Amino acid sequence: MKKTIILFSFIFLLIGKASAQTEVKIPYGDNKEAGNYKQINGIKMYYEVYGSGQPLVLLHGNGGSIKGHSRRIEYFKKQFQVIAIDSRGHGKSVDASNKQLTYTQMADDVNVLLDSLKIKNAYIWGQSDGGILGLLLAINYPDKTAKVATFGANLFPGKKAIYNEIDQMVLDTLKVTKDPHTKNLYTLLAKQPNITDKELQKIKCPVLIMSGDRDAIRLEHSIEIFDNIPNSNFFVMPGATHFGAYEKPDLFNLVLMSFFNDPFNKTSSVQLFTGKK
């Protein structure tokens, strides 16, 4: 049982250590001055807003919350209007139904929230599950996405996308857990998402696919995502795991800020050498 719950334990430990490296005085994720609830698709969705300028939506990973974005909010609120969201069934968002979570529903929740805030053409960054939501937003709600960046996202579950040991940990946890919330979260990991290459090819906005070189997601799977999005860039963080954004925040912030602020460029070496466009 200890091995099967190590995934969540490691996530929380890593995020906690990362946040402790820099003193953060604002209680992100539980800030009464910036926090709000909205009735969205039958739930009470919790979100916090900071700064001004181009809207930047932050989407956390499986089992996470706004609290994991503390250092990121501190950095990006200086230039953007940061909208940090607790997904359905996570953090302070209240879902009394306890129904099985789906990425499709969670992406629609974000879409409806942005509608209620009268926000279009936002920048989106998502970690892991949040990255999946970012891709679904770009596919199904293109008016909401000006640019999308993902770290450690996958198109489908299972060992073709995720390294064997990690996928097995998810399956083993489902066999032994008696906690309904844990079962819901791990069922989400085990059975979803189900995004096709054809759906990826519909994405029009610029997308940055990010991965650690020792990610939970197979590198070849991240390359598949990159290859199927027409306007995409690809960044592999050296010496980084699935949590590279927390392990190397300065490098992460530099790359993400460049993607958001610089004109999108997909000029290839073939084009440079041949002169063809």
Q: What does this protein look like?
A:
It is a single chain. By secondary structure, the protein is an alpha/beta fold. The protein is built from 11 helices and 8 strands. An 8-stranded mixed sheet has the order 1-2-4-3-5-6-7-8, with helices on both faces. Helix 3 packs across helix 4. The radius of gyration is 18 Å and the shape is globular. Mean pLDDT is 93; it is low at 1-10 and 16-20.
Structure summarized in a few sentences:
The chain has helices at 6-20, 70-76, 103-116, 129-140, 164-176, 180-191, 197-200, 219-228, 244-247, 249-261, 269-274; strands spanning 35-40, 43-50, 55-59, 81-85, 122-127, 145-151, 207-212, 232-237.
Give helix and strand order, one letter per element, not per position.
HEEEHEHEHEHHHEHEHHH
What's the end-to-end separation, in Å? 55 Å
Specify the number of helices. 11
| Largest β sheet strand count, sense and barrel closure | 8 strands, mixed
Rounded radius of gyration (Å): 18 Å
Structural class from helices and strands? Answer: alpha/beta
Major β-sheet strand ordering: 1-2-4-3-5-6-7-8
Low-confidence stretches: 1-10, 16-20
- Dominant shape: globular
Mean pLDDT: 93
Please give the number of β-strands. Answer: 8
Portion in beta strands? 15-25%
As a percent range, the share of helical residues equals: 25-40%
SSE topology sketch:
Layout: H1 6-20, E1 35-40, E2 43-50, E3 55-59, H2 70-76, E4 81-85, H3 103-116, E5 122-127, H4 129-140, E6 145-151, H5 164-176, H6 180-191, H7 197-200, E7 207-212, H8 219-228, E8 232-237, H9 244-247, H10 249-261, H11 269-274
Parallel strand pairs: 3-4, 3-5, 5-6, 6-7, 7-8
Antiparallel strand pairs: 1-2, 2-4
Helix pairs in contact: 3-4, 5-6
